[in-house]
Amino acid sequence: MKISKIKGFADLYGTESDRFTLMENQARKIFGACGFTELRTPILEYTDLFKRSIGEETDVVNKEMYTLTTEKGRSYSLRPEATAGVMRAYIENALYSKNQICRLFTTGPMFRHERPQKGRLRQFHQINCECLGSESPLADADMITMLMRFLHALGLQRIQLEINSLGCKQCRPVFRQALRQFLDALPEGNLCEDCRRRRTTNPLRVLDCKHEECKKLIEKAPRITDYLCEDCQRHFAVVLDILRQQHVEAHLNPKLVRGLDYYCRTTFEVVSGEIGSQSAVAGGGRYDGLISALGGPDIPGIGFACGMERLALLLPEPEPEVPDFYLLVMEEKDSSRAFLLLQELREHGLCGEMNFTCQSFKSLMRQADKSQALFCLIFGSEESASNSLTIKSMRDGTQQSVPLDHVLPFLQEHCHE
Ligand code: HAM
Questions:
Q1: What confidence category does residue 119 fall into, taking pLDDT thresholds of 50, 70 and 90?
Q2: Comparing C-alpha atoms, which of 302, 264, 63 is closest to residue 176?
Q3: Contact predicate 294/52, CB 8 Å
Q4: How far is the CA of 125 from the centre of ligand 1 (A)?
Q5: How confident is residue 352, by pLDDT bands cut at 50, 70 and 90?
Q6: Measured between alpha carbons, how far is 32 from 147 in angstroms, rounded to an integer?
Q7: Does position 410 have pLDDT exceeding 80, yes or no?
Q8: Which residues, including other chains, have CB under 8 Å from residue 213's CB and lie 6 or more apart?
Q9: Is 53 touching ligand 1 by the criterion CB < 6 Å?
């Protein structure tokens, strides 16, 4: 039986893989310039970490985790997101003792057992940033501005930043109560099955239900922004004001509640209208109580993650890397001499390959053509006898004989003109 990949999992190769490299390089450049250093956490963590951080009542923890239990009864889960693992690592390695503000960047695969569709996979990749140690609204504005700079640097134009404040321990329960009262007063049976359950377990999640019926029913629901306490109001106003001054356009969306329980105050998503229903390319927010809830010191934090598969859908076809040469050797007896030359050229930073088995000139030329190299270096019997190569420009077809010991300077001169 042929073994295929698991549903919702994907192989990344060719231009798709190039797009991922491009995103990671751009992320390292832009986030690095803002003081972020890289943290790589394990893909597998104790299930309790996700229960305690993301929340037991969230779909992510409740329905979507890949969990395995050992014979001894220990439960491990594949990470469904990066934040929980980053917080664990931050606490466990006492990273808070190094700098007052700690900025951590993580990238890699995440796993959620959701129904696969365009832009939604079961193994997907995130670029994730966390800024720990400041409760200033400047930190919020800094993270959002940096995220937008990153997305624009990737060439994304038609994207929209949506923003909301989820309040804090003081004001959110008051809003929750008002929302529950509103939901309880709705005609029984009109909400979808999930929302009927959420009404008691996690009423805020009803606000971003995707069912048309539910959307209509909650049109007149109370708005969290009307319930913010004075401190939360002030915090949010400063964030919005700084974004405005930075010319970062933010669209206020009081129904933006996010699918993870750790958030407080500023939350945001970046959406695109060009990739179908899975339109969020990035999401994040503040989570001031999370580190202490996981047993660490009382340190505030804010972060975001971008979905790389969704960003890849929006990126233009990357320019292919053009090799400098293709070394074409006609006879086995010359292969080792050609191989030594190949290694010498590469050691000097030139990029190219050679044929390892000798075939007809025509088929080797076809391979040289396919490689899109700038120059084809032909090593046939005549060249072998005269210790030279024929160098053919694959751009204009001109060719010339070059002594073997002049090949390196020739390519150095002509490849990066
Ligand atoms: P999230 O909104 O669950 O937030 O995920 C962030 C992004 O990951 C989404 O906007 C989306 O682009 C991508 N994503 C999520 N699920 C899938 C999927 N099944 N297939 C493809 N892409 C997906 C978080 O994960 C938070 N940890 C972000 C954060 C960091 N908040 C604070 N710090």
A1: very high
A2: 264
A3: yes
A4: 9
A5: very high
A6: 13
A7: yes
A8: 190, 191, 192
A9: no
Does position 278 have pLDDT exceeding 70, yes or no?
yes
For 120-143, how does the pLDDT look when each residue is reduced to its tens digit (9 = 90+)?
999 999 999 999 999 999 999 999
CA distance 16 to 22: 10
Token representation of residue 66: 């890949």
pTM: 0.93
Question: What residue's CA is closest to ligand 1, atom 30?
Answer: 304
Alpha-helix residue ranges (DSSP H) falling in 47-191: 47-54, 59-62, 83-92, 137-153, 172-184
Does the Cβ of 283 fall within 6 Å of ligand 1? yes
CB within 8 A of 376, min separation 6: which ones? Answer: 325, 326, 328, 365, 368, 391, 392, 394
Distance 116 CA to ligand 1 centre (A): 15
Domain ranges within the chain, ordered by starting residue: 15-171+228-314, 325-412
* Residue 200 or 325, more confident: 325
Under CATH, domain 15-171+228-314 is a member of which superfamily? Bira Bifunctional Protein; Domain 2 (3.30.930.10)
Contacts of 392 (CB under 8 A, 6+ apart): 375, 376, 378, 398, 399
Total residue count of the chain as it appears in this document: 417
Whether ligand 1 lies within 6 angstroms of the CB of 304 is answered as: yes
Nearest residue (by CA) to ligand 1, atom 20, is 120
Q: Write down the pLDDT at residue 343.
A: 98
Contacts of 316 (CB under 8 A, 6+ apart): 155
Interval 233-258 mean pLDDT: 96
pLDDT at 417: 67
Q: What tokens does 85 get? A: 């693992």
What b/e readout covers 6-27, taking b as 16+ CB neighbours within 10 angstroms?
eebeeeeeeeeebbbebbeebb
**Residue 399: both structure tokens together:** 């060719």
- Residue 197: in which H helix or E strand, if any? helix 193-201
Tell me the three state secondary structure of residue 219: coil
d(CA 26, CA 22): 6
CA distance 240 to 236: 6
User: Please, which pLDDT band fits residue 215 given cuts at 50, 70 and 90?
Assistant: confident
Residues in a beta bridge with 78: 44
Q: For ligand 1, is residue 114 a contact (CB within 6 Å)?
A: yes
352 pocket-lining for ligand 1 (C-beta < 6 Å): no
pLDDT for position 210: 82
Which CATH number does 325-412 carry?
Answer: 3.40.50.800
Residue closest by Cα to atom 8 of ligand 1: 307
